[in-house]
């Protein structure tokens, strides 16, 4: 199958400045279902990733306890207390363009219920972490974007992680085509597999990203990019590229081991600036 | 009608350093009624906008839950728990010069009650977001400043937003004169319409501002400027100008899409410095 | 009476680097009784002022609600829930060298009770804001440092603020000698009056300090300086000097009106560095 | 006995860049049992020290109240509410490599219970502050690392602190060999004593570290280094070295007295960068 490394050139030719007359509605409202009482930070990291990547408006569905933790750090977001439960009862907010679900979610049952309702919408879906498992995805109008690391992909496929790592292209592509989903198989040289059979490999990032939380940041970034960009492939490829490029910029002046997921978001605007046409 | 673009020259000639012997009482105390349990951040953003713009003292009336979220980020403010309800019962704090109401308010009934009491005072009022609706403003001594975006202005006037956008000057001016209020119709090239028939157009700002929360920041800035400046027209025009100029400065080194409302406040002192006489 | 302006030279000759073999015990533990549910930030600002000024250890006595607000911003401090009440019942923590009381305190009765017990100790006391009122101070071993602005000094003395402002030296000195207390009468050209009849005038600071919260920062700084320095006069004079000097440094690149009390603390280490011998 | 000063050369030759193909599992998950309702910040400081030093994943076991304080500042961590109590009942989380216990712990009984269970595991243990007392450590597979300051070492040994200070090498070494533990006797020229009889002296750090909280930061750093490095001696020596070196870098532009423990963590990645091979 055809595959390509997503290069600086690819980014430059697909990443554009925004329309000067835009308003927040132009860039789509996203819903983030993330965070639980013992993993509240995942929602913060994903939310920050989304806001720093240019989402128009963001609603974070999480518990009141978690909202209280997040809101001082992410005042630009709105909160829906117990948003996961609400969606699980069919109460999907109106006016949104995409939903990311999974970072820091601990309750598999509630997560499943919410996903069932989300599947019946036309929303683009980014599915990560606690929302990833062995499951069949229906044909639907909105995108399904899955963002497993090898351990999660093993859980989804039943294939041992070490086998997956030996055949990252093949496994990712097979799953993408079977499930009609975009598979973003993370780790060094992240692989993006599309249902149309194309494969993209991301060259950016470093071992500083090997720390809890960096995946949550990526999930939020993907939510913003699919909410606000029209062309899907460059949108997701650029999100993954910028995530790694931000870590690479940071590493030029800092020991990679000290990188935090928050730093990745923090430097995104600076990194993206150098690619803006 | 006469209109003008508010230029760098206008700012320079109307924006002055403070009186060296001033104390905090010199600059007026402001009251901010904002924030609710699912939109706490609006109050934080507006409060930060006010403090960074030079308000003397700030009291934020919001729930205890929201106060707990804000106070660690805005230790310079005081809090009045359930301040909206208190004002709605006629308990308007003494010694204040202006009140901003609306950002992040979710309860229309309580907001209306508070506004009724505020209308009966001589306070300058900045009315935004959740406090904007179809309503008649009485003749009063204090200013009424309305800060709708086109969607909110549509709700206030019954005119479709697309029509408003085609005739921003006319609609803003008509409303300003009818209601004896200053209308700040936001969006690219924000229009400021005054009851005396004059119109100001703001040239600053960029599409990075097209994100949830940036309007809240402006509301806080306006609260500070009308509390601490004597000459109303330059006060509000400068507030709007600096809001956009801060976004423009930020955009010189960052991709605009990554701009957060907090960044706007953060850079205000630096931006204002270059205009200070 | 003899008075002097506290000059850069005075600071340089009295401000020293720390002893290389010091440990945290060397610099004294301070107790800060400050903050209430609607004025939590005062405690944060004072606490930050103390820690950035070199206190060895800091315990903040405040409500559990306020502690929860502060601790994420001031993790270096310890907290005593309901510390004001505890001291009011005679439970003064052991091992401390000085106590600051007043910023953000709302309950006059409890504050009085605590002060009564504190007066019976040998601790240095910094008394500010909510703890300042008409009162007689007993002869005692520890210092009594009072930090009123003209309005508070008027409340303490019964003299109208406008009269005080016309005779700042005389009023401050008379009170200092009557009450055997150090009076720091704040505002432009802050006056420090000592019981021995000497007067110091501070030349630093600017109108950016004319905003809620800056006095709280100074209170914390004074707590640190009297806890860790032996020579009292230079200790308090340097604290006041650095407070203003930090505002002056900040103002070189920022419009003064945008200064927040937090910024004052933030830049203290940089400012103090240039005076360290 | 043989002792050596840990030099810049030692650091350079033992501190390496990470393996490019690493994932978060490569660097080990750490458990931090720290923080109590009146000393919540200790857990924050230790957690930040661990994350900035390159731990793969971090779980902080602390109360729900403390978790709520920490999570907005340390979103990269996971939380286990009442983790100390859980471990005390034998519920030690699976999949972890090391545990640090002590900073900000107030309940000696619960701490002891937890330690008893931890002793029966193969985990590396870093024991500090509230978890340090007179105690006998069993022979075990995992490391025992004790990090007392002289006052704590006095409590552990019954020897007066002033005597300890006169014979730091001897007392540290005797205890290390008796108890088969690594003793890190803190203070200027921190001494590291190993059960094999070797002694390391750390040359970095300054009196700015003489402030509450800096020890907590070190504890977190040690947790990260023993979780992610294979060679124990350089791991702990480098952690202590970087802790002081960060303070030294900071002091080049700031008055040492203004140093906060948070600043130490903040600058770690920059400091470590200059030693990375
Ligand atoms: N060694 C590495 N090199 C490049 N990227 C990495 C590396 N380790 C982890 N990452 C990235 O960091 C993120 C980790 O996500 P997660 O495993 O969900 O926390 C993914 O985007 C990975 O691709
Ligand atoms: N494309 C744009 N160019 C300039 N300013 C904008 C643009 N979009 C939004 N803004 C400003 O951002 C703020 C948005 O406020 P709100 O709609 O209440 O969130 C207003 O001050 C708008 O004028
Ligand atoms: N115009 C000014 N020039 C210099 N210092 C000022 C000025 N206004 C206020 N300050 C200082 O700011 C602080 C205000 O304290 P407070 O009134 O308690 O909030 C005091 O340290 C004052 O001396
Ligand atoms: N005067 C000093 N010079 C160098 N390091 C110091 C000094 N005072 C304290 N430290 C370090 O700061 C930390 C204090 O830890 P603790 O006593 O637990 O708060 C330890 O790492 C000490 O070695
Ligand atoms: Mg993940
Ligand atoms: Mg708005
Ligand atoms: Mg004051
Ligand atoms: Mg310690």
TrEMBL record, chains A, B, C, D:
EC number(s) from the headed UniProt entry: 4.2.1.136, 5.1.99.6
Cofactor binding: number and manner: Binds 1 potassium ion per subunit.
GO BP: metabolite repair; nicotinamide nucleotide metabolic process
Keywords: ATP-binding, Isomerase, Lyase, Metal-binding, Multifunctional enzyme, NAD, NADP, Nucleotide-binding, Potassium
Names of required cofactors: Mg(2+); K(+)
Protein's UniProt keywords contain Repressor: no
Positions bound to AMP: 186-190, 215
One Gene Ontology MF term: metal ion binding
Binding, (6S)-NADPHX: 104, 149, 216
Catalytic reactions on record: (6R)-NADPHX = (6S)-NADPHX; (6S)-NADHX + ADP = AMP + phosphate + NADH + H(+); (6S)-NADPHX + ADP = AMP + phosphate + NADPH + H(+); (6R)-NADHX = (6S)-NADHX
Stated family: Belongs to the NnrD/CARKD family. In the C-terminal section; belongs to the NnrD/CARKD family.
Function summary: Bifunctional enzyme that catalyzes the epimerization of the S- and R-forms of NAD(P)HX and the dehydration of the S-form of NAD(P)HX at the expense of ADP, which is converted to AMP. This allows the repair of both epimers of NAD(P)HX, a damaged form of NAD(P)H that is a result of enzymatic or heat-dependent hydration.
Name of the protein in its database record: Bifunctional NAD(P)H-hydrate repair enzyme
Organism: Fictibacillus marinisediminis
The encoding gene: nnrD
Portion of the full-length sequence here: 202 to 478 of 478
């Amino acid at each position: 199958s055809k595959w390509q490394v997503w290069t600086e050139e690819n980014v430059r030719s697909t990443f554009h400045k925004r329309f000067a007359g835009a308003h927040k509605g132009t860039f789509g409202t996203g819903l983030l279902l993330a965070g639980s009482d013992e993993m509240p930070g995942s929602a913060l990291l994903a939310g920050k990733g989304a806001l720093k990547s240019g989402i128009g408006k963001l609603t974070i569905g999480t518990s009141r306890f978690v909202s209280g933790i997040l809101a001082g750090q992410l005042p630009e977001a709105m909160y829906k207390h117990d948003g996961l439960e609400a969606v699980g009862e069919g109460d999907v907010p109106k006016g949104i363009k995409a939903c990311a679900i999974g970072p820091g979610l601990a309750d598999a049952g509630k997560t499943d219920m919410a996903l069932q309702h989300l599947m019946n919408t036309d929303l683009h879906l980014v599915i990560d972490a606690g929302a990833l498992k062995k499951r069949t995805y229906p044909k639907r109008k909105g995108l399904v974007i899955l963002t497993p690391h090898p351990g999660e992909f093993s859980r989804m496929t039943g294939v041992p992680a070490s086998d997956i790592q030996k055949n990252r292209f093949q496994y990712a592509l097979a799953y993408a085509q079977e499930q009609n989903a975009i598979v973003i198989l993370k780790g060094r040289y992240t692989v993006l597999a599309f249902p149309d059979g194309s494969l993209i490999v991301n060259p950016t990032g470093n071992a500083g990203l090997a720390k809890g939380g960096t995946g949550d940041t990526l999930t939020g970034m993907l939510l913003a990019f699919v909410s606000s960009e029209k062309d899907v492939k460059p949108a997701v490829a650029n999100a993954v590229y910028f995530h790694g490029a931000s870590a690479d910029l940071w590493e030029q002046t800092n020991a990679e081991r000290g990188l935090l997921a928050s730093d990745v978001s923090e430097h995104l605007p600076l990194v993206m600036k150098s690619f803006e046409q």
